[in-house]
Amino acid sequence: MKLRDILAEIVEKKKDIVANAKREMPLDEVKRSLTCGTFAMTHRFRERDWNLIAECKLQSPAKGRLCRRYSVTELARIYEDNGASMLSVHTDPHFLGCNEDFRKVRAEVSLPLLRKDFIIDAYQIYEARMLGADAVLLIARILTPETLKRFLYTAWSLGMDALIEVHDRRDMEAALATPAEFIGINNRNLVSFTTSIEQTMELLPYADKSRTLISESGVFTGEDAKRLRAAGCDGILVGEGLVRADDVAAQTRLMANAGEEEKGDMA
Asked: Where are the beta strands (DSSP E) in 77-217?
């Protein structure tokens, strides 16, 4: 099955998930249950030149189960203890994610949290903040340019950051048409479902270097991370490259400190 089919399937199912959520807890009730955030992602990323968003990822729609050794909360604690700047937590069932896992991680760690989901309705942004999210993922491919901008402003109105995910030049143009600070280049090919950091290398020349640029997926080695940093990325989002490592803690440290040796040598 091609990614475009998987993506369409996920988005179609998401409509039902959101409709059910609205019935169980109407938007007005969600709004009464939340407090505004403090743009924790922005503050954290300004503290360091290089940032790792470590993903608590147990499963992939394409590759199946990725991690059986740890729970989501166990991964979160390992990441926090070993230098991650921020955590990404799935709430979509295709990745074995759920809202309850997000709440558990929020109670366990103090790092900023990104709600990793397929956001197609503003309701999900309010819900994310109610769950304790500091940022949301907005996928340019599944939103119109107008909706992308509107959702960005909705996130900001709640004190949350937004990571706009792009896959190609058209997505990049849509992202750059917004005032978004954070742009993530997803290295997953939408036809073959393979990942390669060459996707980031190809799109970086078309990016605005004044934004914060994150390379997502397909980062498996310290050399991958160093190469992306040297190319101009400000950080990486890594899931499979961490959870499938023999030593998750050591791999987290490696990714979080990528390029620090070279930086020290030049000082």
From this structure: 86-90, 113-116, 135-139, 161-166, 182-186, 212-216
Q: Is the dihedral of CA 151, 2, 94, 83 positive or negative?
A: negative
Instruction: State the catalytic residues.
Output: 55, 57, 116, 165, 186, 216-217
* CA angle, residues 158, 160, 162, in degrees to nearest 5: 125
Decide: helix, strand or coil at residue 102: helix
Q: Is 87 left (phi over 0), alpha (psi -120 to 50) or beta?
A: beta
Express each pLDDT in 152-162 by its tens digit. Answer: 999 999 999 99
CATH 3.90.1150.10 is held by the domain 3-260: no
Q: Give the pLDDT score at 267.
A: 45
pTM of the complete model beyond 0.85:
yes
99-108 and 72-81 helices, crossing angle to 10°: 30
Contacts of 214 (CB under 8 A, 6+ apart): 51, 53, 163, 182, 183, 184, 185, 233, 234, 235, 236, 237
